[in-house]
Amino acid sequence: MNQDIEFIVGSERRLLDLIGRDEIIPLLAAAVRSGASGASVLDDAGEALWQDGADEIDGSSPQRRSLRLEGEPVGTLQVSGEPGLVRPITDLLHEVIQILMTNNLKRMLTTEIHTQVVRQSYEELLESHQSLERSERKYRELSQSLDAQVKERTRELQLVHAKLLQQEKMAAVGQLAAGVAHELNTPLGFIASNLHSLGKYVSRLTALLLRIREQAGGKSGALCALDLEEQWRVQKLDFILEDIPELIEQSCDGAKRVQRIVEDLKGFSNLDGATLAELELEQELERALRVLSGKLPEGTRIHRNFEPLALVNANPALISQLFFNLISNAIWVSDKPLVLSFRNWTDAAGLHLSIADNGPGIDPAILPRIFDPFFTTRDVGEGTGMGLTVAYDIVHSLGGILSAYNVQSGGACFELCLPPQE
Amino acid sequence: MIEYDEFEKRLVLKVVYYGPALSGKTTNLLRLHELLAREQRGDLMVLDTKDDRTIYFDLLPFFLQAPSGLKIKLKAYTVPGQVRHDATRKAVLQRADGVVFVADSQLKETTNNVESFQNLERNLKMVGLSFDSTPLVIQYNKRDLPGIVSTEDIDRVWGETGIPVHRACALDGGGVLETFRALLGRLYLGVDEKISLESDHGLSREDFIAQILRPASGDSGEIDLREGGLE
Ligand SMILES: Nc1nc2c(ncn2[C@@H]2O[C@H](COP(=O)(O)OP(=O)(O)OP(=O)(O)O)[C@@H](O)[C@H]2O)c(=O)[nH]1
Ligand SMILES: [Mg+2]
Asked: Span A13-37, mean pLDDT?
């Protein structure tokens, strides 16, 4: 699997990439409030990037400090005013800006890695998030602009989260494609083979027909009949005539199967669209099962305990994805011949549908966390840890609840409950 | 992949310290930071560690200038050695111009060394770098410990590969500069081939190495050569 690499770790940065206006202006303003006549930050070419107060110099030259990134000068801090007063202000301001830059750089580098290392375990993400927060806190004591930074970081993390969700969708589409290719191959295989046989039959029939036309040209009736009989045998017409309808029927069947698979797939093709439809949940479940049929281990048994329930108004693609994820999960954990049990019912809370498997069940210790993003019990590289999160998000977006528990016979059960719709 | 900006007269090079967990990669950078002149280097940046284990990476930049005015920045990174941080390792390895492989000399670490080396080969390929054309130097670290692989065995394993091997005790700095020097030498050759450092920029291999390896002042200026290379 080729993971996308979007950033080059450690690519070169400039001052503008690193500090935001919202962060620096309050600092420069603070210097002016404390007595400087002007404070500005210049880029490496000496152009002013940000400024507060007047840059005028009353005779004395301004204080200048080089701003360094990874030890390299990338700009200059310049503060003008009465030297005795302004020097310590400049030193302090310089220190604060340097810390701000270093912190921001670290944050950017770690965020980049986060984006790349999507499979890293949930624990570590949490850990480094916390330590990011710790370094954030240090900075809070030095600057007022924390709020903007936190927002920015939250946005970055949300971006990472959104990317992961998208990736999960793409992964599902990939699995789907593999399953479908498998499913399509069988009917397409025999359609092709039947057409091949039919082609051969047609050439035999043609040979016979040519012969008839030739003979109709004059020979005596008896001879003609004899020869035809012989040709009939040579071309194996009895067998051909018997086989043709069967081949045609088989091929039509195959074509219908292909058609149905394509229909099922259409359900998935509009993941991000907002199309709503009145759906029968059970049918959508069957659809997901069919799409996954190539993945179901041999000997899988499926129990259905369905009663007719009200229709649900939802985006079919999302519902397909929901069932796809839940069933994929069951397939993944199964360690013996898989038994899936589906059941639906209605009560005051709304509409229920449960999917139970006969796998090892969910360790009670991790039960509270299985819907968390990034959480996975699979080995690195085998799951994004987002499948159940996506399922949860989907049910949530419908105003419902997805819960997980272990059933008495041992397996895990996922139950969704959708509120009654008016 | 050398980052060269002819217009800005700027060249950025990247070297990566690779190797199994706890082999001493971060320690190597710490020692370089201590031993080399402040004017030639930036600060050592250590991104979040957990119990001294690198989670992201460490970074130590070096600077030098060629007589032509070309500014050269060389960034030395360490990767996290722990197996589970493979994706991070890959990310850090991208576009590396040279690699130091830090092996742990302890016999009980042999398997880890081998696995990490195989991991390096695999990851170089995955980030689109060729193993054969990436300058590589091997360091056998922790020579001070008991129960370590013998020099003869090291020779036997690496001798015919032609990859230079250095022994080191990064804890007290022995062999650290020598390893780095060997890598710089190899790195220079590759860069010189591409952008003619010597003929176009007047920077010889010796100057390139000597500038970066300028010892920190206050130091005697002598480089500790106790653990010489096996080259
Ligand atoms: N005895 C001895 N210990 C060493 C030597 N070099 C490093 N160490 C110790 O080995 C431990 C790990 O060193 P690090 O430099 O943090 O290892 P690392 O390769 O960066 O490890 P990761 O970040 O987990 O990949 C530290 O306790 C070092 O002090 C050495 O030459 N001799
Ligand atoms: Mg380390």
From this structure: 85
pLDDT in tens, A149-184: 556 666 766 666 666 666 665 555 555 665 566 667
CB within 8 Å: B88 and A113: yes
Residue B25 Cβ inside 6 Å of ligand 1? The answer reads yes
Which of B145, B157, B152 lies closest to B117, judged by CA?
B157
Segments forming the whole domain that contains residue B72: 3-218
Instruction: Tell which residue, A51, A64, A49, has the closest CA to residue A18.
Output: A49
Q: What is the largest CA-CA distance in chain A?
A: 133
B219-230: pLDDT as tens digits? 444 444 333 333
Which ipTM was obtained for this model? 0.71
Instruction: Identify the domain boundary among A88, A107, A132.
Output: A132
Q: Is residue B192 part of a domain?
A: yes
* CB nearest to A10's CB, from B43, B75, B88: B75
A56 vs B198: CA distance, rounded Å: 47
What whole-number distance in Å separates Cα of residue A132 and Cα of residue A157? 12
pLDDT value for A111: 67
* pTM of this structure: 0.54
User: Which B-chain residues 85-114 have CB contacts (< 8 A) with chain A?
Assistant: 85-88, 90-92, 94-95
The answer to whether residue B229 is domain-embedded is: no
Residue A34 DSSP class: T
Three-state DSSP class for residue A8: coil
The answer to whether residues A235 and A200 touch, using CB atoms and an 8 Å cutoff, is no
Question: Which residue stretches of A267-347 are H helix?
Answer: 281-292, 316-333
DSSP 8-state code for residue A308:
-
Instruction: Measure in Å the smallest separation between the Cα of A3 and chain B Cα atoms.
Output: 9
Distance CA A172, CA A394 (A): 15
Domain span at A246: 165-268
For ligand 1, what atom is nearest to the CA of residue B27?
A: 15
Q: How far is the CA of B101 from the centre of ligand 1 (A)?
A: 13
Q: Are A109 and A135 in contact (CB under 8 A)?
A: no
